[in-house]
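User: Okay, second chain of the day. Same drill as before: sequence in, structure tokens out.
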Amino acid sequence: MHKIYFDNGSTALPKAPGVADAMKNYVDTAGFNVGRGGYQAGIDVAMQVLETREALAAFFAAPSARNVVFSSGLTTAMNVLLQGFLAEGDHVITTSMEHNSVMRPLHALVESRGVQLDIAACDKHGQLDCAAIEALMRPHTRLVVMLHASNVCGTVLPVAQVGALCRERGIRFIVDAAQTAGVLPLDLGAMNIDALAFAGHKALLGPQGIGGFVISDDFAAEVSPLIFGGTGSQTQSFEQPQNLPDKFESGTQNIPGILGLKAAIEYLNARGIDSIYQHEMKLYEHFVAQVSDIEGLDHIAPRSSDKVAVASVNFPERDNAHIAHRLDREYGIMARCGLHCAPAAHKTLGTYPAGTLRFSFGHANTVEEVDHLLDALRQLIETTPLETEGSSHGI
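Assistant: Same drill. Structure tokens below.
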């Protein structure tokens, strides 16, 4: 059976051409650490890591390569930023569409440090009115943190407008770009973003286990490191270096992941992220144009024209998890059922606790694959029994 992957919101598959080769070549021929030896082979690897930082700095219009900080992923990056900045009594604002990579660290900080949290309500389509953020701002508000696009329904939130509002008020602004880095243009300066967290394995088309954040110099000075240790620099001192990126990069780096991400960015630059976005949205629009006519399912649709290629559906009279299982086993279609690590978003959209069945289209998907999905959904509506008491929609 031909397998079709529609879970690119979770992680992109296939990865960009050249990613696996770059990682294998490093492991096989150049598995040296960076900043730990003065031999030329190690210096050559360090230059490749620097080139990756430079590519990401250009990608996000960061001040320089040193403003790019690597971590194991976006969740780690968000924890470094939130835990390193917020203190007792600080007030922070987020939105009701957030992923748990933001919600859980904030909840922990409320419990452990007495941080004050307000959540700006988005509408039932996942859209945010900037006035909802502004209404929550207080004299002691230190931070607004929000995602750029929903991983549940694809709605793109008005990051640039919120950034401008924060800059006017002297409030720091952090953006979760998990669903947009690699398909939508991002500019730290133009969008007034103080720090942007990215996941290397989603739309950036790199491997799992690599991500990070891009941070302005002045904001970096206000954030304390979460991890302390060896950096290969200022080794004579027991104090953590304050220069970027070393301040936030203690320990051995995931160099295979970094070099895999480097290959992915080279592919994105050659193909063009706008070209990829247009391709994915063509698939999305093709799906949406027909799925709304299928009786027995609800399409959880953004009303705004600003969106990414993430579509969620719900089967009010059937078990979402049962549908997802049959799609995989009988039609070879892989999709994600449940709450997508975003229960707050599902509460906002009115799909909690059942969640939805999500289809997230990627750079390698085709119209023919979407047609196969649509045919499968039509057939499953006809052959899947109505939900009975005690059945589960998944988690």
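Residues 40-59 form the longest helix (20 residues).

User: Thanks, on to the next one.
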